[in-house]
Design a protein that fits this description.
Elements (H helix, E strand, L loop, with lengths): L1 H9 L6 E3 L2 H9 L4 E5 L11 H12 L4 E5 L5 H9 L4 E3 L2 H5 L3 H9 L4
Parallel strand pairs: 1-2, 2-3, 3-4
């Protein structure tokens, strides 16, 4: 991982390292990652649980991550606000937008726009 991160930096690329646990987060940060994505979807079961981001985000920030991204399972503004308060900087949202009858309205809701 360190070699890939170093090479991406040489090329002037930004990189996002996706993690599923605190141990993986430590490994990624030790290797030089500064943007960490917490995948709330268990890729073995496809079950989504945003409590993973709730648990990991504060710890990952304390360990020195520049940006923390919560990936998957974001369905409402309350979740966004709660995760922001725990140190999440950005969100990867897919399913809730794709299932919405009005994706633009849904995105505005998630972002806190009332128009």
């Amino acid at each position: 991982l360190k070699d890939l991160l170093d090479y991406s930096k040489e090329l002037g690329l930004s990189h996002l390292v996706e993690v599923f646990s605190l141990q993986e987060s430590e490994r990624a940060l030790t290797a030089g990652a500064d943007i960490i994505g917490i995948n709330n979807r268990d890729l073995d079961t496809l079950r989504v649980d945003i409590s993973l981001s709730e648990k990991l985000a504060p710890r990952i920030k304390e360990m020195g991550a520049r940006f923390v991204i919560a990936e998957s399972g974001i369905e409402n503004r309350e979740q966004v606000l709660r995760l922001e308060n725990l140190g999440v900087d950005a969100f990867l949202v897919g399913t809730s937008l794709m299932k919405s009858k009005d994706p633009v309205k849904k995105l505005r809701e998630l972002m806190g726009y009332n128009f």
